[in-house]
Amino acid sequence: MRKSLAFTLVELLVVVAIIALLISIMLPSLSRAKAIARMVKCSTNQYAIGRAAHMYAAAYNDFVPRDSGWSNPPHPAWLFFGARFSDYVGGPFIPIEHDTDDAYLYDIFKEIPAYQCPSFVAEYPQYVLTYLSNGYNFKDPTQWGSPMTKLSKMPYPPASVGYICEINHEYLPSGPSVGYPDGTEVFGCYDFLGRRNSSGTLVENSASFHENGEPNMYSRMIRFDDQRHSGKTTVVYFDGHAESRNLTSDEMSTRLFFPNY
Predict the structure, then answer these.
(1) How would you class 202 by CB atoms within 10 Å of its CB: exposed for 0-12, middle for 13-18, buried for 19 or more?
(2) What is the pLDDT of residue 104?
(3) Is pLDDT at 76 greater than 60 in this prediction?
(4) Of 238, 239, 192, 236, whose CA–CA distance to 218 is shortest?
(5) Number of other residues whose CB lies within 10 A of the CB of residue 34
(6) Handedness of CA 179, 183, 186, 192 (dihedral sign)
(7) Nearest-5° angle of CA 120, CA 125, CA 130?
(8) Mean pLDDT of the residues in the chain
(9) Residue ranges in 60-140 assigned as alpha helix (H)
(10) Which one of 86, 186, 214, 242 is separated from 104 by 20 to 30 angstroms, measured CA to CA?
(11) Strand, helix or coil at 254?
């Protein structure tokens, strides 16, 4: 009698079941590995921006760009730091007359990976700048900040005050900006200043947590319950260094960005 070398149906089903089991075990690990890789890339981005701030200050008499405020008609002045740092993070030098030219900046920023959190653009690929600058006016937090701040003239040690952080993944404030998820042709409402009413009065402070420990639901910066990096974020300080912080009331309060709030 000739002996058959073929697999039986039972054997094939066992092999398929084993492969399916291995895949089910490996998928969560692969997802975690991908999330960790995105977190590392985002941190690397912000370290690059921190180095850019340090180099910019060294080249421009100790000044760093911040939030240049509103204009009439309104322009995306929140893009100011991105424009000034472009040639320090792999982009071209941007002439100052284009600092608020949203269409011009959009085409440049989308080619600068250091400006994009990979976890954020995975959901909202139309965003090309997913970090924001601290726009607090250090004399009066209800007012807009100045376009430039001289580090040696800051009222607080530059190494102790947050300068650059991630944008809130859920609350995207209204205002002139290109590429909102709802399709609005706008680009950029990126600053640390909190939500304002129609008269311009500050009605929410900006950090992940209020000073009483309550979470801020309307922060423009990364929110208290943001899980894109497993409850962590990277903050760049005014002296250019960067630190990873937990999204907790003691590590991400308003006082980190405006110490005397």
Answers:
(1) middle
(2) 85
(3) no
(4) 192
(5) 13
(6) negative
(7) 45
(8) 78
(9) 80-85, 102-109, 118-123
(10) 242
(11) helix
The answer to whether 253 touches 211, Cβ cutoff 8 Å, is: yes
Name beta bridge partners: 110: none
The sheet carrying 131-133 orders its strands as 131-133, 162-166, 232-237, 242-246
Q: What is the pLDDT of residue 151?
A: 92
Contact 127, 207 (CB under 8 A): no
Q: How far apart are the first and last CA of the chain?
A: 91
Cβ atoms of residues 223 and 229 within 8 Å: no
Q: How many CB atoms lie within 10 A of CB 133?
A: 29
Give residues with Cβ within 8 angstroms of 179, minimum separation 6. 106, 124, 126, 127, 128, 185, 186, 187
Contact 230, 35 (CB under 8 A): yes
pLDDT of residue 37: 87
**Domain ranges across the chain:** 41-256
- What type of residue sits at position 222? I
Taking residue 240's Cβ as centre, other Cβ atoms within 10 Å add up to 23
Average pLDDT over residues 151-169: 89
Give start and end residues of each alpha helix (H) in the chain.
9-59, 80-85, 102-109, 118-123
Q: Which of 170, 173, 215 is nearest to 195 (CA)?
A: 173
Residues 101-146: tens digit of each pLDDT: 777 888 899 899 999 999 988 887 878 888 888 877 787 766 666 6
Q: Are 181 and 188 in contact (CB under 8 A)?
A: no
- Tell me which H or E stretch contains 246: strand 242-246
